[in-house]
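Dear colleague,

As promised, here are the two records you asked about, laid out in our usual form so they can be pasted straight into your sheet.

NAME FIELD: protein one
SEQUENCE, THEN STRUCTURE:
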Amino acid sequence: MLKKLYTIFLEHPEVCIDTRAINPGCIFFALKGPTFNANEFAVTALEKGASIAIVDEEKYVLDDRYILVDDVLSTLQSLANKHRKKLKCPIIAITGTNGKTTSKELLYRVLGQKFITSATKGNLNNHIGVPLSLLAITSGTEYGIIEMGANHEQEIAFLCSLAEPDIGIITNIGKAHLEGFGSLDGVLRAKTELYSFLGDTKAKIFTKDNQQNLLELLPKESQNYTYGQLDSSNYTVKFISAQPYVSVSVGELIIESKLIGDYNFDNIALSIAVGNYCGVEMERIKDAIETYIPTNNRSQLIETDQNSILLDAYNANPMSVEKAIHNMLLIDHTHKVLILGDMFELGTETEREHISIINYCLSAGFSNVYLVGKAFDLANNTEYASFPTNQELKNTLKKSPIKNAFILIKGSRGMKLEEIVKLL
């Protein structure tokens, strides 16, 4: 069946899992979820122009345009791996607690300066997104970049078995998805499943030169390269400043990015190192980094009539929040304000981690701090203002607006803190 399906895929090399995004001739995979069964929508997909519908319930097979399989998801994953085995291009896998998507986007632009490059769209980095990303790579692609996310152990190992990467990068290890991993050690074990796969295949690994916990676990069988500020690194990149945009130097070459926050230095250095290794000239790397502008609530600088706002409301965990707060210390402004939203998926560590962030704000000397969400509200035992919901903060901002400030907005995606911007 898989051989037959792959032949069909080569004739119709586009897959879709959403009837709202059907393109003529695509193959529709009827996936199931906790609250939906896309088998029910297979007929709609065909009516909208799909060539074939892959289903796993016989009652939905109405004619020869339907292909019945045991399980649609596993079929999608198997098809993706079969396609990957046919591809000639190197696959670069990127995982880590923070910086995966920004690093992927930067590297995509750097390699795209010289090579035909494909990369994960958005953050399609899970057991569904990775197969879709692999199937989007064409035979003419010269480099494929696959972002890998995980919220439990063995997930990265499984994604590696699908993507079979040639080059691997773990951006960093921090406290995120503790609900699924259980502890920081669990995060470390999960992310370094990438190292286990790469070690077995004697592949190439890039590691930040100050990530000691990762450097100690590098497999001896792989080809290991370091990047960062150390002169002893394979690829040395120096941090210059972040006022507010990050600028770096490589030898005499100065690169001035449109990325805000000193924490983005790591993402920039990674893209420089891997791009350099792959043969992209430094002037082209410089152009790629300097013309990249982040979107989707990731470290965006927004100027309103009243304030400057650093909007970083796409995601949040203790590591990324601390880095964002630390970066605010470096910003040269007389009136700084922090608006911090709850960090999700921390499990039993939720209260402790939110208290830790509050204490970090206190120790850093910040006085203008607004805490948003149930977790922060419960953890707050200070003079900082806290609000169980966004609406309560909005009500306060309408009555007492913030003016002439540099404002950090940071929180988990589910907090929807971007809604506050219009009041600032």
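NAME FIELD: protein two
SEQUENCE, THEN STRUCTURE:
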Amino acid sequence: MKKWKKVLLIIISILLMFAGIFSLTFIPHKIITIDPSEVSKIEIFSGNSGDEITVTNENQIEHIISNLNEIRFQKNEFVFWRLGYDLNITIYNKNGKRYKEFIMNGNESIRYNFFIFEDNTKSIDYDYIDNLFDILEVKPW
């Protein structure tokens, strides 16, 4: 009988440990943590129009990355079944390797690694990024 109690205690302990670790993922945290000087380009694809732009201007990269670096995102919901998006953003480092890819839906949320992350302060500068489609050369899809 004591052996079953030990096994049950171990199983409960493991389950509690996993539940604790999972709950820690809901603590607000930064998703983008890169020095803007380490970014070579940002590719932005519009899910609305099908247009794509590549941002290589250092001032524009500085603005976008600095804005995203400041935001702490709160994991909200699993989005495996959700389709469609506003902007698909891919950030490349100076070596030309993909640093981060995520989907931006307005000024308050991004979709990253099968989850929607919310910015409760609505401080994503979505309008700045969206206006780049009027400034930069657009590559039609």
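A couple of things worth noting about protein two: The mean pLDDT is 87. The beta strands are 39-46, 51-55, 74-78, 87-93, 98-104, 109-112, 115-118, 139-140.

Best,
R.
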